[in-house]
Write a structure and sequence with these properties.
three-stranded antiparallel beta sheet, four-stranded parallel beta sheet, FAD/NAD(P)-binding domain, alpha/beta, binds flavin-adenine dinucleotide
């Protein structure tokens, strides 16, 4: 199963890791020249990775109705992201307000872990690739069009960014 993930931010990188873990052949397409540019400015460059609250407290602190997140957190929790970073040698620390940061105080360390995990899962990372359209046939996804005109064939698309133009 060939899967294209559109957008190399935190959600796209995690989606790619997750799809590849389930056995998909994954291509991650990012329009910028590197992954996670926004991630690098989070938490004033330190990246507030997650919270140390348990899932119920976490959901109670989500503005609006956070209950729909319950099943997501059952699948992948704050402990899971901490374990993933630890696997790649990055320890975290708990700061005021239950906020979890990398001990390095650098968002780059978090990004490095994501990239290592993507490589370990054999995700094909392609930067400078802007997806401009999703290609369909008989209402099924068959690929994506890049700005260059290239078609990347796939049978599944995970959209991990804002999408202004719908197919
Ligand atoms: C100043 C600031 C500080 C923040 N601090 C924190 C923090 O400490 N902790 C925290 O959890 N959150 C923080 N956030 C929020 C966090 O940055 C976002 O929640 C997170 O980046 C969302 O990730 P994402 O992958 O959904 O989107 P993005 O990070 O926006 O990633 C989307 C990616 O898709 C790419 N893309 C877009 N269109 C296309 C296309 N057509 N084809 C290919 N690629 C495309 C973009 O270039 C981008 O790389 C902060 C945000 C800001 C602005």
């Amino acid at each position: 199963m060939k899967t294209v993930v559109i957008g190399g931010g935190p959600s796209g990188m995690m989606s790619a890791i997750s799809a590849a873990s389930k056995g998909d052949d994954v291509i991650l397409l990012e329009k910028e020249n590197s992954l996670g540019k926004k991630l690098l400015i989070t938490g004033k460059g330190r990246c507030n990775i997650t919270s140390s609250l348990n899932i119920s407290e976490f959901i109670n602190n989500v503005p609006g109705n956070g209950k729909f997140l319950f099943s997501c957190f059952q699948e992948f929790s704050n402990d899971d992201i901490i374990a993933l970073l630890k696997k790649h040698g990055l320890e975290v620390k708990n700061e005021r307000g239950n906020r979890i940061f990398p001990v390095t105080d650098k968002a780059q360390s978090v990004l490095d872990c994501f990239i290592e995990e993507l490589k370990e899962k054999n995700v094909n990372i392609r930067t400078k690739c802007e997806v401009v359209e999703i290609k369909t046939q008989n209402n099924e996804v068959t690929g994506v069009y890049l700005g260059s005109g290239e078609v990347v064939n796939c049978s599944k698309v995970i959209l991990a960014t804002r999408w202004k133009k719908l197919p």
